[in-house]
Amino acid sequence: MAIVGDTKKRILLTGGIRSGKSAYALELASLMGKQKVFLATAEALDDEMNLRIKNHQLERGDEYQTIEEPLYIADRLKEVGARDVIIIDCLTLWVNNLMFKLGNDEVKMQEQKDKFFDFLKQPTCSIIMVTNEVGLGVIPENKLSRQYINMLGRLNQDVARISDEMIMMISGIAQQIKKEL
């Protein structure tokens, strides 16, 4: 497991659905300090998602300041102030939210991504970002799904490039993909 000292690190956790990314993010954050923030991008749009959100909240307990923000994550991250670590869970749903809430307004979507990367370039603390790996599946049949996969795939590549560490979760096992000293 990666252990972070006093330096601010950007760590990307990727993997398939239910691969253990969120649990590993919590475990990793527990080694990084006491002042922890959890930025959740999910919205409870149905009963199943509502249950997943509640289970994640129980898993975190009261150790975290929780911020729920489906769209404007960079603005919310700037408001956080001095902390030890922030978990962003997850970029996958953030991209989904951008597409469906902002529609085809690529200018507004790019504006949100640019703000996010501006924050990542000069983080106020360590950041653990959770995302789904979409590059291992088949090409979707419908256009909207292809647009989503393309947008998320590009975002994941850009985040991986700027990250100090990248870890891929496979069936609950962490595999270090990138580590800059």
From TrEMBL:
Pathway: Cofactor biosynthesis; adenosylcobalamin biosynthesis; adenosylcobalamin from cob(II)yrinate a,c-diamide: step 6/7; Cofactor biosynthesis; adenosylcobalamin biosynthesis; adenosylcobalamin from cob(II)yrinate a,c-diamide: step 5/7. SUPFAM superfamilies: P-loop containing nucleoside triphosphate hydrolases. Coiled coil: none annotated. The keyword NADP does not apply. Its EC number is 2.7.1.156, 2.7.7.62. GO terms for molecular function: adenosylcobinamide kinase activity; ATP binding; cobinamide phosphate guanylyltransferase activity; GTP binding. It catalyses: adenosylcob(III)inamide phosphate + GTP + H(+) = adenosylcob(III)inamide-GDP + diphosphate; adenosylcob(III)inamide + GTP = adenosylcob(III)inamide phosphate + GDP + H(+); adenosylcob(III)inamide + ATP = adenosylcob(III)inamide phosphate + ADP + H(+). The keyword ATP-binding applies. Keywords: ATP-binding, Cobalamin biosynthesis, GTP-binding, Kinase, Nucleotide-binding, Nucleotidyltransferase, Transferase. It is an enzyme of class 2 (transferase). GO terms for biological process: cobalamin biosynthetic process. InterPro entries: CobU/CobP (IPR003203), P-loop_NTPase (IPR027417). Gene3D superfamilies: P-loop containing nucleotide triphosphate hydrolases (3.40.50.300). CDD domains: CobU. NCBIfam families: PRK05800.1 (NF004469). Belongs to the CobU/CobP family. Catalyzes ATP-dependent phosphorylation of adenosylcobinamide and addition of GMP to adenosylcobinamide phosphate. This is Adenosylcobinamide kinase.
